[in-house]
Each structure stands twice: as C-alpha cells, then as structure tokens.
Write a structure and sequence with these properties.
mainly alpha, 2 domains, 8 strands, transmembrane, acyltransferase, PFA4/ZDH16/20/ERF2-like, Palmitoyltrfase_DHHC
C-alpha cells in the first residue's frame, strides 16, 4: 500500500482485476443477448440507453473513489515524534522515577478537552500502533492501521470504510442497488 504526499489517495493492498473483468464481461453480455437494453439499442431509444450507462458509470466512479480514497488513517509519525520529545525531555540516565514521571506526563497529554464538551476526554492509545486514538477511532486488523470513525473493512473494496470515504461508500451502495434492480428488470 502506498500513500501519496498529500495522503488523500492510496493503492489497495491487493487490487483484484478479476472483479473488474467479470463486470466488463457481464456488461457485454447484457448488450449482446436478448434483453430490454439490446431492444432499446435496436429501436434507437437513446435516452433509455444513456440513463443505464450513466448509472453504470456513476456506480463505477463511486466504487473507485471508495476504493482509492484514504479512509482516514492516522499518521504513523505521530507516535515517533511524541516518543522523541519524551526521550529528549527526560535525562539520559533513566530511573524508575523518571519513567513514572514520563508516564504521568503522557497520561496528562492524553487528557484533552473536546470542542463540543467542556469535560476532559481521556484518549485511548492503540496497543498495536502505539499512537493516541481520537474518539471513534479503531484499529483495523486487515490494514494494520488506525482509522478515524472506523466503520468496517470492506473485502469488496479492499479498503476500510472510515471518516473520509464513508459518504462515497453509501452513494456507491445506493447506486449499485439501483443498478442491480434495473439489470434484473431488463434481463
């Protein structure tokens, strides 16, 4: 998986071309076999064909956006920077008191005030990534990354559904459902 500099798009771990090939074969079969779509083409009903193709293209666009958009991964560097600042602030000879003081300081840093709530919120620390997790952040077992507003890891997208791609995922699901219903209707 590679991230670009801005961190907005990434390549899924194992992109499956067989899924896309199956979609292309199915679409070709719809156009060639005796379906309402083929009849509309023969009769010159371009509006019917255009609407179906537009729905297909929009579904594909939102599928790829959901696949390729960063779901809201937390940066891995966050922990490394904090670890360096803790080690620089403590003396070079560490004792039990220094470790206790560092852990108390870390706990104090984990207490943050939310913008909406005046009460302090204790941020969790991911046991695997060793970074502070904001509220509603979970660690994905498949991606081995912490994701903001983690919903689930979708095996069809080969990506997590999180804060940044959640709305595109829902639009994809709605469009895909409409496309499936229309395809069943025309066959």
């Amino acid at each position: 998986m590679t991230d670009n500099i801005a961190g907005s798009y990434h390549r899924a771990s194992s992109f499956e071309p067989s899924t896309h090939f199956s979609l292309l074969v199915s679409l070709t079969a719809l156009c060639v076999t005796d379906t309402d779509l083929n009849h509309a083409y023969q009769k010159g009903q371009w509006l019917y064909l255009s609407a179906y193709l537009l729905l297909l293209i929009l579904t594909s666009i939102f599928y790829f956006i959901s696949c390729l958009l960063d779901p809201g991964y937390l940066p891995k560097q966050q922990y490394q920077v904090r670890k360096r600042t803790i080690s620089l602030s403590s003396s070079s000879e560490s004792s039990d008191e220094d470790e206790d003081e560092a852990s108390r300081g870390e706990d104090a840093r984990m207490l943050r005030k939310s913008k909406r709530s005046p009460t302090a919120v204790k941020l969790r620390k991911c046991p695997i990534c060793k970074i502070e997790q904001p509220v509603r952040t979970k660690h994905c077992e498949d991606c081995q990354r912490c994701v903001r507003k983690y919903d689930h890891h979708c095996p069809w997208l080969e990506n997590c559904v999180g804060e940044r791609n959640h709305r595109y995922f829902w639009i994809f699901l709605l469009l895909q459902s409409a496309l499936i219903l229309w395809t069943v209707r025309i066959t």
